[in-house]
Request: fold
Amino acid sequence: MQYAIVTGASRGLGEAIARQYILQNINVIAVSRRGNQKLESLAKEQGREFHHISCDLSDMDDLNEGLHRISEIAFHEDTHYVYLVNNAGVIEPIDTVGDLEPETVQKHMQVNVTAPILMINRCIKEANDRDIDLGIINITSGAAEKTIHGWSTYSSSKAAINRFTETLALEQEEKGHTIFAYSPGVMDTDMQGEIRSSSEDSFANVDKFRKLKEEGELRSPDEVASVLMNLLREPKKIENGKVYKLYDLVED
Reply:
């Protein structure tokens, strides 16, 4: 059996990735605060397992309970492969240093850095103890490699995930797991709506993102998910620890 654990699967890219896995006859474990009836119905139509784990990744108690349930569902004697897609993330706070709210920064780092690290930590242990192969995909951002006004927290969290991915791949190079990060570019999601609602004082480049929406330059989550699935179809060609950027994988 194969399972795909997808965080942030209730909407946007996470929903699109979970849908693609179901259509490929892979059982899905969706980790999010809210459920998704469309995914549940699709899984039933396809004859696949669908498990929704209600989990607030910013809450350590919720996260620990979620990890326990994931382990019970996905890692057993009939499982031979598990995908983990760390997709859940937050953009807030968008603001300049000096005006950052401590609680918002703490929540941001918990969701964007701590939760994916602990998800991977648990899955690596379970998989290695049971000789199960893993495919680990960390959703990152081009912001990890850029200095962007108002995005100090977001850029830092994604840079951390990139370096963690590289280190993880180094440590696991003899285990046969597939490990990489995926930068999806600019998509038409709720997160983009949050970005566009920022003030120019908080985010100097906000007009650029508003124009992308106005001019129809935003890719759909389904298109971005399809590019990721195409990459996963040839695992032997994947370079472990690498950040794969959508713009390098598609032809305009």
